[in-house]
Each structure stands twice: as C-alpha cells, then as structure tokens.
Amino acid sequence: MRRSGIRLLAAAVGGALVLAGCGGDGESHARPAPDGLTARGAPQKAVPQGRGSKVPDDFNGDGARDLVLDDLAHRGHGDDPGIGVVYGTRAGLSPGTRQLLTARANGARTKGELPAAFESEAACDLDADGFTDLVVSTDPPYDGQGQPPVPLQLLFGSPKGLTGKAVKLRVPARARLGNDWPDQPVCGDFDGDGAQDLVLHASGAHLTFLRGPFTRAGGPRAAAAPLTAPGNELVTGGPAVDVNRDGYDDLAVRAEAGASRGSLVLGGPKGPSRTGALLPAGTDTAFGTFRGGRAVDAALPGPRGIALRYDVPGTARATLAVRDASVRTGDFDGDGRSELVVTGGRPGEVWLYRGRAQGLAARATATLAPTGGGEGLQVLKVADFDGDRRADVVVRTSTGRGTDRVEVYRGVRSDALVERKPSLTFSTTLFANR
Fold first, then answer.
1. Quick check: is 3 in a domain?
2. What is the pLDDT of residue 402?
3. Mean of all residue pLDDT scores within the chain
4. Which of 206, 325, 355, 425 could bridge across to 301 with cysteines, CB 3.0–4.6 Å?
5. C-alpha to C-alpha distance for 326 and 377, rounded to whole angstroms
6. What is the chain's Cα-based Rg?
C-alpha cells in the first residue's frame, strides 16, 4: 500500500484555525500536581470515563487531550506491536492510563484475513458524539487486479476510550476513480455543515470527498463523484485548516510525492472543489499564526530551506536557512502567536522560532536537546496537554536497541518558551507489558 510522505500540521475546530496551545473545554485551567515526573514501568490504570467534549484527540471524552503513538519500541524482528494510546488528565498525560490497539484485537477482517499493518492515520469525531475517533491504515489482501479494497478502518471513541473492533470505512463506488489505493485520509469540515468529513486520494487529479457525520458501520452521510483537484497527493498528518477564513476547511495537495509544488484546495458548500493559492515546493507543511491575529501563515521546508508565507496567499515572504527539515507549530507562551518547531537543523536538537508581530524570528529563539538525542530524535506532537492554553512539545529519542525515551516539555510564559527539563518521561516499551 502506498503511503504519503507529506504532512500537514495544524489544529482546526469548527472550521476556524486554533492555535495548538489553545485547548481545554472552558473549565478552570489550574494545573493539578502531575502524576509522577518519570513513568518507568508505570502500572496500567483504568481509562477514566468521560461524557464527551470538543477537545481534539480526546478519545474518552473527559476533556483532556490524549496521545497516539505508532512505531512502538520493541525487541526482536517481529511485527510492530500496534498503536499505543496514552490518555490525558487535567494534569497532563498519564502513561499509566494507556491502551494498546492491535490488528489481532481491534482490526476488522477482509476476506477472512486480519491485517498485518495497523497504523494510525487521522483522528477526528466522525460520528459527532463528542468522542474522537481514529482512522487506521491497514494492508488488506489484493491481487493487483482492478480496484484495490479500501485499506482504512475506523475505531470509534467512547466513554472508555478506543475499545472494540474497528469497522471498515465504506467508500461508495461512485466516489472512487481509478485503481489507486483510496488512502491518505484528511479530516475537516469542508462543506461547512459542522460535521467532520474525510477526503481521500483518488487516481489522476482527483480527490474522494466523503461527507460526515459517519455511521457506526463506517458509511458517510453522502458521497458524490470524485472532485477535480490540482493534485492528489494529500498533505496529511493533521486536520485541515480554514486558510481563507470563509467558514470552510481547506486542503493542501501536491501533484506528486516528494518535494513538488503544491496548491490549496478551498472548501465550500460542495466540499473541497476550488483551487486556491499555489505553494512552493516542499516536503512538509505547517500552518499557524506567526504574526498573531486571524491571518493564517505557512511554513514549507524543502531542500533549499524553509519557505515562509504570511497571510496566505499574501505577498509577505521570508526564508529560514534550514534544509530538509520537519516543522510543527504551536503557541508555547500563550501570546496568541504561533512558534515554529524545527527538527533536522542539527542532529539531536529541536529548534523553536518565536512568533512576533513582524513575523518569525530569523534565528532559533530556544533549543531543546533531549537526553540521548541524535539522528533518532522525533517531534511526535505539539499540543496543549495540560489545559493551560500553552502548547507542549512531545519528543521521542530512539536508542536503536529496542528501547526509546519519550519526553514532554511544557510551554512557559517566558523567553525560554518551554521548560528546561521535561515534565514527564516514559518509554513506549510500556505497551509491551500492556
């Protein structure tokens, strides 16, 4: 099965851009004492039962953001252990409250076979019940003849989190085109009706648009013929963003995988059907509000540096001289401006560029150098996990010996942007013991 190598990072709720540091459900944001700073061998706890919320990535609906982990550390050369979920609390992530999702326990069969691959692709509330759902990519059997089966499955959130068996996403025949895999799912409200939709890859210059909400059997509310687009390589990795602030979420696409030029596809009553601004060639895309206000800005890293576009599709531009980087955005100090998080500038380091009224700082404002960093350093997520309306950053360092180290650094209201030491440290080997 083909996989997109292009990611989009942003947070969108109800069609409006939301800074990654602006979480919570309107309750008090006082920070309770954390559940232990280091979670080595943390015992497993029951998932707290919630009543539903509008917080992103909240699978049990308790108002706290949860963390999804793929590529869990494990010894040996066997299959990937599965998908790990660390549940959140008002104090932040709690590694003791976790779930392991596997193809054997949670996957749906295709032609009697369980999938071998089982990886998270997107998360949003597809059935509009207040609990975030998980879109999972699998590898159903396919002999190479005709249209391949739909490789995506849905795990629905509930008061107990992600439980039970997944269901296969149903893509009506009229919504498919050609023999490409219908994958690369992107969540968003593209038709402005308040429900989360899904957009998938289709053959040629087309996209499959599935209108939400979705049934518990995996079917969309409606689906029409594939939409024509300036590209069908979807920029994945996060929800869509309402770039032009018209109440409809928009998409970023590229003509082909890799560092090719891209375009915005603008949402509307008929879904993402209009071509918007052209985007420079890049391997990654992140949207934010680097200068504050409502204007949406973009950072697009590529082989020549990170291209910055302010107030897309505005003419204000800049470049950061960091080649072949990965980028994320979040408001770490709570001032209403997004910071840019960059990896790839130097092995073992994460660089943070402060958002300012005149645009991003030209040089890194703060540097994180997690313990044991190096070529195996990843930024897993930038989001508000403790409800203080400031973004936190989750980084992972792989040791290459079947172990890893995950650290959470909290955002702070100072020039430092994040705390010097992690507030939480754990290893994904926790999931090996459930």
1. no
2. 86
3. 89
4. 325
5. 11
6. 20
Structure-block tokens of residue 42: 């943390």
At 265, which CATH number? 2.130.10
3-state secondary structure the chain: CCCCCCEEECCEECCEECCCCCCCCCCCCCCCCCCCCECCCCCCCCCCCCCCCCCCCCCCCCCCCCEEECCCCCCCCCCCCCEEEEEEECCEEEEEEEEEECHHHHCCCECCECCCCEEEEEEECCCCCCCCEEEEEECCCCCCCCCCCCCEEEECCCCCCCCCCCEECCCCHHHCCCCCCCCCCEEECCCCCCCCEEEEECCCCEEEEEECCCCCCCCCCEECCCEECCCCEECECCCCECCCCCCCCEEEEECCCCCCCEEEEECCCCCCCEEEEEECCCCCEEEECCCCCCCCEEEEEECCEEEEECCCCCCCEEEECCCCCEEEEECCCCCCCCEEEEECCCCCCEEEECCCCCCCCCCCCEEECCCCCCCCEEEEEEECCCCCCCCEEEEEEECCCCCEEEEEECECCCCCCECCCCCEEECHHHHHHC
402: closest CA among 138, 77, 65? 77
Q: Is residue 186 assigned to a domain? A: yes
* Residue 428: closest CA among 370, 384, 380: 380
* Residue appearing with tokens 């998980």: 134
Q: What is the rounded CA–CA span in Å between residue 185 and residue 291? A: 30
* Strand 285-288 with 8-9, pairing: parallel
| CA neighbor of 335 nearest in space, from 413, 418, 416, 415 | 413
Write out the two tokens for 381.
Answer: 């997520």
Domain that holds residue 33: 8-433
Pick from 68-77, 98-107, 212-221, 245-254: least confident? 68-77
Question: Which pLDDT score, from 0 to 100, does residue 78 have?
Answer: 67
Question: How many residues does the structure list for the chain?
Answer: 434
Which residues, in sequence order, are bridge partners of residue 167?
A: 154
Structure-token match 């919570």, residue found: 24
Let me know if residue 221 belongs to a domain: yes
Question: Quick one: tokens of 249?
Answer: 């979420």
Burial class (CB in 10 A: 0-12, 13-18, 19+), 414: exposed
Better-scored residue on pLDDT, 329 or 262 = 329
Cα–Cα distance measured from residue 157 to residue 97, given in angstroms and rounded to the nearest whole number: 15
Domain-embedded: residue 1: no
* 191-243 residue pLDDT tens: 999 999 999 999 999 999 999 999 999 999 999 999 999 999 998 877 789 99
How many domains, in total, are found in the chain?
1
**In the block, residue with structure tokens 């995950």:** 406
